[in-house]
Design a protein that fits this description.
alpha/beta, QueA-like, Thrombin, subunit H, 2 domains, nine-stranded mixed beta sheet, six-stranded antiparallel beta sheet, 23% helix, 25% strand, globular
């Protein structure tokens, strides 16, 4: 089936608000774990996840760090304008570069209360010695360009957001962030700053889990995909072909790519849908390089390009591309849309939370395990699993 013709109504299910976890459990690894393999469903908790992974597995984690992307400005009249910082404007090479800018930066933002922002008005926010100014600099198709300037100029934009911003909790939580969210809406291994949403599958992992993985000789590597606000955007068109997939920056170290290529044939498990999208993106990147095309992966590429190239050949092509340019890491954007009809090339397993109805993330799960996604979600609802970002999760083995 052409994925463009998929009716999004076929990927709906009833999700009562009370089943959405508003807060995380006290212990990260106490969350429940639903295991799916060849149509069989079983249960456990995350702290025992190593018991359900083969000894020669390779786990890929997304180590992106959530930034305090919500900036609230109070106007002299008392009204509030919210700037939600999405990603650097095109003038910056990537998110990491944008985050390290000092003194000023151009950023793409969403604006809450845009009609209240009068033309030419400068928004000002101050805390102790830090003074931040925001100026309207233009409009893009689905966001606004904002010029930020601040003093002291020695501070990076990441430091400015950390001091003045708020944790961007998902809108479906319907609450304001609390002090605990600064720690709990972040994985314990988060490093490169740039996400506006957490890679939630990784939230369950603790030092104790990693110790048990090492004992069982289960290896792990890190990659980076900076999660954008588009991850919460529902599919509003009747059919999937009317949905424009958001682009997200990702980064993969040359050493990680080599480790991944040599692990082909062993179970490769993506921790989170973001990690899964990167794993499959680098396959299609290699395909496009072998076809002498620009390497950026677009949403419909997998359904239009020839898929006879092996994962070994594709990953080797990307390694060669990096080596020829003496590049130690691959930084790019991906718009990859994974939906039923997609054939996975790299990932064998997926660790993920439960996702919203009619979302691209649910479509990804349906592509991974087929029509059994309905049985899986019905089981989770009937057995009182907790849903979405702060909820429980599952370990899925590809059909």
């Amino acid at each position: 089936m052409d994925p463009r013709q998929i009716p999004i109504r076929d990927y709906d299910y009833p999700l009562p608000q009370e089943r959405i976890a508003s807060f995380p459990l006290d212990d990260r690894d106490a969350s429940r774990l639903l295991i799916y393999r060849r149509g069989i469903i079983s249960e456990d908790v995350y702290r025992n996840i190593s018991d359900h992974l083969p000894a020669n597995s390779l786990l890929l984690f997304n180590n992106t760090k959530v930034v305090e992307a919500r900036l609230l400005f109070t106007k002299p009249s008392g009204g509030t304008i919210e700037l939600f910082c999405l990603e650097p404007a095109a003038e910056q090479a990537d998110i990491a570069t944008g985050m390290q800018q000092k003194g000023s930066v151009l950023w793409n933002c969403l604006i809450g209360g845009a009609s209240k922002w009068k033309k030419g008005q400068v928004l000002v926010k101050q805390k102790e010695q830090l003074l931040l100014e925001a100026r309207f600099a233009g409009r893009e198709a689905d966001c606004f360009r904002i010029s930020f300037q601040w003093t002291p100029v020695a501070l990076s934009f990441a430091e400015v957001l950390h001091r003045l911003g708020q944790v961007p909790l998902p809108p479906y939580l319907h609450r304001q962030p609390e002090i605990s969210d600064a720690q709990r809406y972040q994985t314990i291994f988060a490093q490169p700053e740039g996400s506006v949403a957490a890679p939630t599958a990784g939230l369950h992992f603790t030092p104790q889990i990693f110790a048990r993985l090492r004992t069982k000789k289960i290896r792990h590597e890190f990659l980076t995909l900076h999660v954008g606000a588009g991850t919460f955007r529902p599919v509003k068109s009747d059919r999937l072909g009317g949905h424009e997939m958001h682009a997200e920056y990702f980064e993969l170290q040359r050493e990680t790519l080599a480790s991944l290529r040599t692990s082909l044939g062993s179970p490769i498990v993506a921790v989170g849908t973001t990690s899964l999208r990167v794993l499959e993106t680098i396959y299609w990147t290699g395909v496009k390089l072998l076809m002498k095309r620009e390497p950026e992966v677009l949403q419909w590429d997998p359904y239009e390009l020839p898929g006879a190239i092996t994962p070994e050949e594709a990953l080797a092509a990307l390694e060669k591309y990096l080596d020829e340019r003496s590049i130690g890491r691959f930084i790019a954007k991906t718009r990859l849309l994974i939906a039923p009809a997609y054939r996975f090339r790299v990932a064998d397993g997926l660790i993920t939370n439960f996702h919203q109805p009619q979302s691209t993330l649910l479509l990804l799960v349906a592509a991974f395990i087929g029509e059994d996604w309905r049985k899986l979600y019905q089981y989770a609802l009937e057995h009182e699993f907790r849903f979405l970002s702060y909820g429980d999760g599952c370990l899925l083995w590809r059909s």
